[in-house]
Amino acid sequence: MDKKEIIEKYKLSENDTGSVQVQVALLTARINHLNEHLKKNHKDNHSRRGLLQMVGKRKGFLLYLKEQDIEAYRNLIKELGIREVK
Questions:
Q1: Is residue 6 predicted with pLDDT exceeding 90?
Q2: What global pTM score does this model have?
Q3: Is the pLDDT of residue 86 over 90?
Q4: Is the pLDDT at 1 greater than 90, yes or no?
Q5: 1: helix, coil or strand?
Q6: How many whole angstroms separate alpha carbon 15 and alpha carbon 86?
Q7: What's the DSSP call for residue 83?
Q8: Do 68 and 60 touch, CB atoms closer than 8 A?
Q9: I want to staple 58 with a disulfide (CB 3.0 to 4.6 A). Which of 18, 27, 45, 48 is the partner?
């Protein structure tokens, strides 16, 4: 899935490209892609650091969404297939 498709699927309004749901979905796609890269290139520590930063950023977005709108949070993690944040 490319960036435009992800934005189309998760946007809340017509011109929405920056809502929490869209940002979490985009980060999840990048994280999944980087995970596949690291399976083949296990010594690529530079990319591993970037992956950890993205995971931390996504966690922050998810914690914010959990505080603001618990139903949207539950739907999003179920749809993306990611674990609940604590």
A1: yes
A2: 0.93
A3: no
A4: no
A5: coil
A6: 31
A7: P
A8: no
A9: 27
Single-letter residue type at 3: K
d(CA 78, CA 81): 5
Residues in contact with 74: Cβ distance below 8 Å, sequence separation at least 6, in sequence order = none
Q: Homologous superfamily of 3-80 in CATH?
A: S15/NS1, RNA-binding (1.10.287.10)
Q: Which tokens hold the place of 3?
A: 């960036």
* Residue 50 to residues 21, 22, 53, 63, Cα–Cα distance (Å): 21, 20, 5, 20
Tens of pLDDT, residue by residue over 14-70, are 999 999 999 999 999 999 999 999 999 999 999 999 999 999 999 999 999 999 999
Residue spans of the domains in the chain: they are 3-80
